[in-house]
C-alpha cells in the first residue's frame, strides 16, 4: 500500500513581476518503508514540493493522499491535527523550541496528542536512546551541537508515530561526521522500524545512502531511480 | 503536567530569553505603576480629607429629612422623629454620631436695624462633637442646651450693632403659618472661614428654635456621621431599608452635587495625565512584543508545522504578553505599597501659603494618602487592558501565520 500518493501537483508563486512555476506537474507514489531522496539543483522546487507533501504549503492544483486521506481537502485545523498525528518533520536548522530541554521538545508532541505523563516520559527516553542522546535529556538545544539538535529533531519526528518523516535538507548545516551519524540513525530506523523517510539534499554522500532517488528540475521529475541491489544486499 | 501548564511554562521561559529586554520593559511598567498608584493615593487622600472637612462642617455624611424638605425648604416640611428613627440610627454600627437640626429663616433685629438671617436650631453638644461649631466662637461663650441664648455671626452682629450680652429679636413665620417671634440674649459671636456664614448665621438651641417656630419636637434634618467615608454606601443601604416614607435618607453626594463634581473634574484631569503615562509605557511594551514576534517567526512556523494549533500558539503569546504586564504591576505595587503605607501613617505637613489658607479655613494643613482599593485595582485594570490590546498583535500574527513562509524566515 502506498503511504503517499501525489497526483499532478502544481505550485505557482505569483511574484510582483512573474509567475514562478515552482512545481509543475509531479506524480509520485511512495510506499511504506521507502528511503527516498529528492534531489535537484537549487531552485528546482524541492522545498516547495516537500512542503506540499507535508501539508505546509497549499498546492495550486493537484492532490496529495496520505494513507488515503486527501490532505488538502482538510480544514486548516484538521490539517494541523493531521500533521501532528501522521507526519514527522525535520527541518534544515533551528528545529527545536530553544526554551525547552531536549526531553521537553520530544514530549511536547506527545502531550499535544494527549498522551499521559508516564507513557510520554517512557517513550521520550526510548526515542532519545535510539538517537544516541539518552544522556542529554535535560540539555537545552543551545547546549547541543548542530548534529545533536538534528537527532533530537528526529526523535521528535518519531514521537508522533508518523506515517512518514519529511526532512528538507536535514544535513545541510552539518559537518561530514555529524551528517554520517544522522544518516546512520535514519537508515537504522528505516531498516529496523520500517519508518518511511523522504528527504531532500544536495550532498552526494547523502544521496548515496538513499534507496530511491527522485531528481527534480524546473518543478518536474527528471528521473526516479531505485537501487534494488542494496535492498537485496 | 497539563497542556495549559506547559503553555505557562513555555511563556514564562520565553519571557526570560532576552533578560535585559524583559527587565527594561518591566522597569518601565514598574515606574508607571509606582507613579500612578502614589499619585492616585495622594489624590484620593486629598479628596477624602476635603470631603470630610466640608461634610463635617456643613451637612454630615447623611441626613434624614422629610421627603419634601430638600426641594422645598420650609418649616412646613419638617418632621417629628418617631422613636424608631433614633433606634435605627443608634443600632446602625456604621453610624457614629447624629445631630438634630431645625433650620429656617428669620428677620434678625436690634433696636434700630434689621437683616435677614439663617436660624439654625441645634443640639449644642452633639453639634460641637460633629462639626466643631464651638471652635468658631471668637467672643463670649458657646451655647447650652437649656439656656435660651443665641450665637450670632460676627458680621451680622456688627451690622446690627450688637455684642455679647445684647438682645437679638427674631421675627418669622412658624409652622403652618403661626407667627414666630422671640427675644434672645447673645451668648457669643462666631467667625467662620466663610464670610457668607458670618453675615447670616444665628445658632440657637433646638428646643428654643422649636418654640420659636411653634414646631415642638420637629426637625428639618437629622445629620448623621459615619466613621469612614467608604462605609457610606453600606450605611445608607442599611438606613434606606428601615427608614420609609415620609422620611428619606440623603447622602452628602446628593446634598452637595457641586462637591462631587469638583472631585470628578479633578479626577478626570489626573486621568489624562495617567493616560499619557500609560500610553508611553504601552508603546514600550508594544516595541518589546513587536521584536519578540519578529524574532520568533521561524520558531512559530516550526511549532505549527509539527502540529500546534494556531489558536494554541496565539494563547501562548497572549499569556506571555499578559505575564509581562502582570509582573510589572506586581513590581510596581511592591514599590508603591511601602511608600503609601508610610505616608498614610505620616501625612506630609504642608507649609507656605497653601498651608496658611487651609489653616484659616479650619483644615489641618496635611497631605493625606489613601488606601482606597481603586488606587490599586485601577492600575491592574489599566495594565491588563493595555497588554490585552497589545497582545492582539502576536495573536493576529499567530493566527495569520503562513507556515512555509515562517520556516523560510
Ligand atoms: N514563497 C515564495 N514566493 C515566491 N517564489 C518562491 C517562494 N518559494 C520558492 N519560490 C521560488 O520557487 C522556486 C523553487 O524554490 P524551492 O525553494 O522550492 O527550490 P529548492 O529546490 O528547494 O532550492 P534549494 O535547493 O536552494 O533549497 C524558486 O525559483 C524559488 O525562487
Ligand atoms: Mg530548498
Number of strands of chain B: 12
CATH structural fold name of chain A: Rossmann fold
Q: Supply Rg of chain B.
A: 31 Å
- C-alpha Rg of chain A, in Å? 17 Å
Quaternary organisation: heterodimer
Q: Give the integer mean of the pLDDT values of chain A.
A: 92
CATH architecture of chain A: 3-Layer(aba) Sandwich
Shape of chain A: globular
**Ligands, deduplicated:** adenosine-5'-triphosphate, magnesium ion
Are there runs of chain A of 5+ residues with pLDDT below 50, and where?
none
Biggest β-sheet: strands ordered side by side in the sheet of chain B: 2-3-8-5-7-6
Could you give me the name of the CATH homologous superfamily of chain A? P-loop containing nucleotide triphosphate hydrolases
Share of helical residues of chain A: 25-40%
Q: What about the largest sheet of chain A? A: 6 strands, mixed
* Main β-sheet description of chain B: 6 strands, mixed, barrel
β-strand percent of chain B reads 15-25%
* Count of helical stretches of chain A: 8
**N/C terminus separation of chain B:** 32 Å
What are the SSEs and their pairings?
The complex is a heterodimer of chains A (233) and B (409).
Chain A: E1 2-14, E2 19-31, E3 35-39, H1 46-53, E4 61-66, E5 69-70, H2 76-86, E6 87-90, H3 102-113, H4 117-130, H5 146-159, E7 164-168, H6 176-193, E8 197-201, H7 204-209, E9 212-217, E10 220-226, H8 228-232
Parallel strand pairs in A: 3-8, 3-9, 6-7, 7-8
Antiparallel strand pairs in A: 1-2, 1-4, 4-5, 9-10
Helix pairs in contact in A: 3-4, 3-5, 4-5, 5-6
Chain B: H1 3-15, H2 19-58, E1 62-66, H3 83-91, E2 95-109, E3 114-122, H4 124-131, E4 137-140, E5 149-153, H5 154-160, E6 167-173, E7 179-190, H6 195-200, E8 201-205, H7 206-212, E9 221-226, H8 232-242, E10 247-251, H9 252-255, H10 257-305, H11 310-345, E11 348-349, H12 352-360, E12 366-367, H13 373-399, H14 403-408
Parallel strand pairs in B: 3-8, 5-7
Antiparallel strand pairs in B: 1-9, 1-10, 2-3, 2-6, 2-9, 4-7, 5-8, 6-7, 11-12
Helix pairs in contact in B: 1-11, 2-10, 2-11, 2-13, 10-11, 10-13, 11-13
The structure holds adenosine-5'-triphosphate and magnesium ion.
Amino acid at each position: 500500500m502506498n503511504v503517499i500518493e501525489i497526483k499532478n501537483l502544481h505550485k505557482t508563486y505569483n511574484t510582483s513581476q512573474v509567475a514562478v512555476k515552482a512545481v509543475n506537474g509531479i506524480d509520485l507514489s511512495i510506499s511504506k518503508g521507502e528511503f527516498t531522496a529528492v534531489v535537484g539543483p537549487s531552485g528546482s522546487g524541492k522545498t516547495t514540493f516537500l512542503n506540499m507533501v507535508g501539508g505546509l504549503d497549499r498546492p495550486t492544483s493537484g492532490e496529495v493522499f496520505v494513507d488515503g486521506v486527501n490532505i488538502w481537502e482538510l480544514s486548516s485545523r484538521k490539517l494541523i491535527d493531521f500533521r501532528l498525528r501522521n507526519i514527522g518533520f525535520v527541518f534544515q536548522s533551528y528545529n527545536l523550541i530553544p526554551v525547552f530541554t531536549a526531553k521537553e521538545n520530544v514530549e511536547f508532541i506527545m502531550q499535544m496528542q494527549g498522551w499521559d505523563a508516564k507513557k510520554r516520559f517512557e517513550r521520550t527516553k526510548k526515542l532519545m536512546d535510539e538517537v544516541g542522546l539518552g544522556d542529554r535529556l535535560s540539555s537545552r538545544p543551545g547546549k547541543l551541537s548542530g548534529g545533536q539538535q538534528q537527532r533530537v529533531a528526529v526523535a521528535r519526528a518519531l514521537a508522533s508515530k508518523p506515517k512518514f518523516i519529511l526532512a528538507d535538507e536535514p544535513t545541510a548545516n552539518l559537518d561530514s561526521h555529524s551528517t554520517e551519524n544522522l544518516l546512520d540513525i535514519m537508515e537504522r530506523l528505516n531498516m529496523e522500524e520500517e519508518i518511511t523517510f523522504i528527504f531532500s539534499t544536495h550532498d552526494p554522500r547523502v544521496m548515496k545512502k538513499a534507496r530511491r532517488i527522485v531528481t527534480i528540475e524546473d518543478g518536474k521529475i527528471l528521473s526516479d531511480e531505485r537501487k534494488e541491489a542494496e535492498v537485496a544486499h | 503536567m497539563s497542556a495549559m501548564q506547559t503553555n505557562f511554562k513555555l511563556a514564562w521561559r520565553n519571557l526570560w530569553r532576552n533578560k535585559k529586554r524583559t527587565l527594561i520593559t518591566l522597569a518601565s511598567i514598574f515606574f508607571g505603576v509606582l507613579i500612578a498608584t502614589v499619585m492616585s493615593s495622594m489624590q484620593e487622600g486629598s479628596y477624602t480629607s476635603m470631603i470630610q472637612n466640608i461634610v463635617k462642617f456643613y451637612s454630615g455624611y447623611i441626613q434624614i429629612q422629610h421627603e419634601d424638605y430638600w426641594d422645598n425648604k420650609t418649616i412646613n416640611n419638617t418632621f417629628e422623629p418617631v422613636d424608631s428613627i433614633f433606634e435605627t440610627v443608634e443600632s446602625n454600627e456604621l453610624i457614629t454620631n447624629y445631630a438634630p437640626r431645625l433650620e429656617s429663616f428669620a428677620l434678625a433685629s436690634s433696636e434700630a436695624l434689621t437683616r435677614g438671617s439663617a436660624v439654625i436650631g441645634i443640639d449644642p453638644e452633639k453639634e460641637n462633637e460633629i462639626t466643631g461649631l464651638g471652635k468658631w466662637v471668637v467672643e463670649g461663650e458657646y451655647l447650652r442646651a437649656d439656656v435660651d441664648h443665641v450665637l450670632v455671626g460676627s458680621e451680622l452682629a456688627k451690622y446690627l450693632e450688637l455684642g455679647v450680652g445684647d438682645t437679638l429679636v427674631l421675627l418669622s413665620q412658624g409652622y403652618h403659618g403661626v407667627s414666630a417671634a422671640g427675644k434672645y440674649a447673645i451668648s457669643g459671636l462666631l467667625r467662620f472661614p466663610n464670610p457668607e456664614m458670618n453675615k447670616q448665621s444665628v445658632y440657637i438651641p433646638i428646643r428654643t428654635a422649636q418654640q420659636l417656630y411653634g414646631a415642638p419636637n420637629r426637625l428639618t434634618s437629622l445629620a448623621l456621621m459615619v466613621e469612614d467615608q467608604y462605609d457610606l454606601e453600606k450605611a445608607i443601604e442599611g438606613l434606606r431599608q428601615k427608614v420609609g416614607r415620609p422620611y428619606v435618607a440623603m447622602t452628602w453626594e446628593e446634598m452637595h452635587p457641586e462637591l462631587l463634581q469638583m472631585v470628578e473634574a479633578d479626577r478626570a484631569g489626573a486621568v489624562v495625565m495617567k493616560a499619557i503615562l500609560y500610553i508611553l509605557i504601552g508603546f514600550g511594551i508594544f516595541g518589546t512584543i513587536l521584536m519578540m514576534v519578529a524574532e520568533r517567526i521561524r520558531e512559530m512556523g516550526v511549532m505549527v508545522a509539527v502540529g500546534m494549533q494556531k489558536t494554541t500558539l496565539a494563547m501562548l503569546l497572549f499569556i506571555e504578553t499578559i505575564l509581562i504586564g502582570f509582573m510589572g504591576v506586581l513590581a510596581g505595587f511592591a514599590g508603591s505599597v511601602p511608600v503609601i503605607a508610610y505616608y498614610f501613617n505620616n501625612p506630609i505637613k504642608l507649609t507656605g501659603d497653601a498651608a496658611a489658607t487651609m489653616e484659616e479655613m479650619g483644615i489641618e494643613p496635611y497631605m493625606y494618602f489613601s488606601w482606597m482599593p481603586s488606587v490599586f485595582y485601577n492600575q491592574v485594570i489599566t495594565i491588563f487592558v493595555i497588554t490585552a490590546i497589545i497582545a492582539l498583535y502576536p495573536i493576529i500574527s499567530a493566527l495569520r501565520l503562513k507556515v512555509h513562509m515562517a520556516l523560510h524566515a
